[in-house]
Amino acid sequence: MLDEKAIPYRYREYTREPLTEEEICEILRLLGIPARDLLRSKDPAYRELGLADKPDDDLIRAMAGHPTLVQRPIGRLPGKAVVGRPPERLLELVES
Q1: What pLDDT was estimated at residue 96?
Q2: Of 27, 39, 47, 92, which one's alpha carbon is 20 to 30 angstroms from that of 66?
Q3: Is 79 helix (H, G, I), strand (E, B) or coil?
Q4: pLDDT in tens, 47-96
Q5: Contact at 8 Å (CB) between 68 and 45?
Q6: Where do the domains of the chain lie?
Q7: Homologous superfamily of 21-95 in CATH?
Q8: 95 vs 45, which has greater pLDDT?
Q9: Half-sphere exposure (Cβ direction) of 93: Cα atoms closer than 13 Å
Q10: How many Å apart are CA 57 and CA 26, to the nearest integer?
Q11: Separation in Å, CA 72 to CA 17, 27, 35, 40
Q12: Beta bridge partners of 70
């Protein structure tokens, strides 16, 4: 979709270059959401790690250590971020 519109971007392979705890905190701040809202609760690691009742700090640590737990794709520009679900939401970054 971004390619079709000739919008430049950098793709980051989340399993090879996972987000750090600091990056996750910054994304949460930009999105204005709690950590639980960025978490993929259907990921097997969610149950394996027993994350149902954990506080945000534990969730952030888990997402940094198990990148499949993070909702994706995430688009970021300086001062703003968006979760690309549906993918068309990524266009909000460049249209605003």
Answers
A1: 64
A2: 92
A3: coil
A4: 999 999 999 999 999 999 999 999 999 999 999 999 999 989 999 988 86
A5: yes
A6: 21-95
A7: Glutaredoxin (3.40.30.10)
A8: 45
A9: 22
A10: 13
A11: 14, 12, 14, 9
A12: 39
